[in-house]
Amino acid sequence: MNRDRLFTIIVLGSTQTLAWGSTYYLPAVLADEIARDTGVSTTWLFATFSLSLIISALLGPRAGRMIDRGSGNSVLAASNLLFAAGLVLLGFANSLIALQAAWIVLGVGMGIGLYDAAFAVLGRIYGTTARGAITGITLLAGFASTIGWPLTAWGAGTIGWRDTCLAWAALHVLVALPANYWLLPRPVIDAAVEKRVADQVVPIDRPMVLLAFAFAAAWVVTAGMAAHFPRILEATGATQTQAIAAGALIGPSQVAARLLEAGLMARFHPLVSARLAALTHPIGAAVLLLAGGGVASSAFAVLHGSGNGILTIARGTVPLALFGPENYGYRLGLIGLPSRFLSALAPLGFAVLLEHIGAQILAVSAGLSLAALAALCLLRRPAPEPLCAE
Fold first, then answer.
1. H or E stretch including 370?
2. Three-state SS across 75-130?
3. In the CATH hierarchy, which top-level class contains the domain 206-377?
4. What pTM was computed for the model?
């Protein structure tokens, strides 16, 4: 990897870490304090947060089209301005309406400034060779919760949650915005290509539908497990201590899997990685249901986390490998729309299922993952490879 590409990965990986840590991961730490201070219930807070995720999903195709037509630097820089504005509004909010306004602004920012947009920017810069760069930024931004949660908690405990939001906003304006706008490479823009992309209608064909279904099914599992992981393990017989200890393994497992994707798996077509990743959760669920949470919690966490780590990369690398770099950002937005929409509703759905069927929710999550695997196996690829060869 040359020095310029490594620099790009470090810059974009760092700004993505800030973007995720100060928005998507914020409510997990601050929800209770915001609720106590504003008098708004946590239920309403998380409902508002879900609304912001739906808004971000709907904006994905539009953001991708904007990046396809020209430089993504401006799009990512605009997201930093929106993140900063939303965080300032959040820091001064004293009512449900004010909180909703803040999260609507943050939702627009997430729609144009998180992974799909970053992947589209890399596709615009590096074309079909962007796979390594996509893996690189997810490797760095995989630490967003590891960094963001402790920093947010420390800020809330020292300067208060409101000033913590303002501090995150300042980082977006003073650090992330100039980095995204001036430090990222700008692709050479061909006027003829730009006009063709602007006028071109992208067909929603069978491969796009299969990919959209696969990622939607996988992301429902990811979002549902993220919201209820300790409770699900406790339902299988794990103690609270065992469940929390197992949950701590998910992050390192994601990072380890991404290192594997960057090394050994880089020689295979991205579909191979995606199919293997879709299989890890069902294997872990089967082990957990058979052995019980007291014994198999850690194994399940490692298998689930490693699958998540690679599936995040696959969202960017598989469409690039199948369709190429032209209209890549717009395709990402279309393919990712169902998964981003459904992942906003998944925590509520998993809560209802967990209440009614307990540990058997793992059969549901395993079934969704296997459905994602089936869709991925129906996709054609250039040459037969080890899993699901055609």
1. helix 361-377
2. HHHHHHHHHHHHHHHHHCCCCHHHHHHHHHHHHHHHHHHCHHHHHHHHHHHHHHHC
3. mainly alpha
4. 0.89
